[in-house]
Amino acid sequence: MSTGYVDWNFAKTTGSTLVPPGPSVSADEAAAEVAAIRAAARRAHGPVAETSRMQTPDDAPEALVVDRPTWIATNADSMGAMLGPAFDEIVAKRGGTPNGLGAQIGGKVTGAEAGALLAFMSTKVLGQYDLAPDGTPALLLVAPNLLQVQRELDVDPEDFRAWVCMHEETHRVQFTAVPWLREHMIREARALATDMAPDPERVQELTSRLREKLPELLRDGSGGITDLVTTPEQREKLAELTAVMSLLEGHADVVMDDVGPAHISTVAEIRKKFTERRKGVGAFDKILRRLLGLEAKMRQYRDGAVFVRGVQDKVGVDGFNAVWTSPETLPRPLEITDPDAWVKRVHG
């Protein structure tokens, strides 16, 4: 699969080649872990739906428990489907279609870059609700990462699986209980990708500026490369999308912790150790996250939990659920850190 700009099949091959293996386990241990994760995901649905007070279809497909290469392949397909229309629109605006040897080489280069990034991310992700723009959405749980983090934290395996599944199941509930949300996210992401794509004549300029600005991009609190390649208007649009992502992540964190005490006896220990682990990422991880702007985004996602708690303290869970009414009731960027402003705007 290639868009002309990115050879996504090559991205899959590159990612699968570069990704490190997961924890060392026997075939029987791996099968038992997969079965245990799948069972934990199945048990999570009822408590999450009850706690969030969100109505979901009863026929949701079973969660997919995957390894790292499968996660890479699935996300390469989704990224290709997400960005393909944006690339097509960019090409149409520029009056041409990428073709020939140069386009093939360029597609391989960007495919390799995408594959390397996917390989890195595949070792960090515990689970994900894949929006699958041109396919069937699915809840993915990455078995080797769950096992690796559980061992690193030295917490109860069953409780840890349940805790992670509560968070990821909340994402599935969000998108299945709110029918318009998936298409809204896909549409906004595609529009932003189209708008942010640099013209060919800007690429050399941006490369030069990247060399000059690299120390700034690596500083604590930097927005990463996006600070360099975006206009103020684009950053405003990106902030709007980030606010929604912060809402989704924050809501999932709140639900998983609210569900926890009734179903997970060691939830407080798990949360404490997991939060400490987030602070202890290695030097390379920190550099890459800052360069990509991920570190700043992670802080914003934590603001999402503060937003959810703040709103629920004011108007309760049902009052908070007004956030899912329409795109207009989603929190604006400044409201993520000011729940009272959202309550005033939406509830009066």
TrEMBL record:
Coiled-coil portions: none
Lineage top rank: taxon: Bacteria
Organism: Knoellia remsis
Keyword Hydrolase: yes
Keywords assigned by UniProt, alphabetized: Hydrolase
GO MF, one annotated term: hydrolase activity
Record-linked Gene3D superfamilies: Zincin-like metallopeptidase, N-terminal domain
Protein name (record): Putative hydrolase/coenzyme F420 biosynthesis associated uncharacterized protein
PANTHER family: HYDROLASE, PTHR39420
One family name in Pfam for this protein: Zincin_2
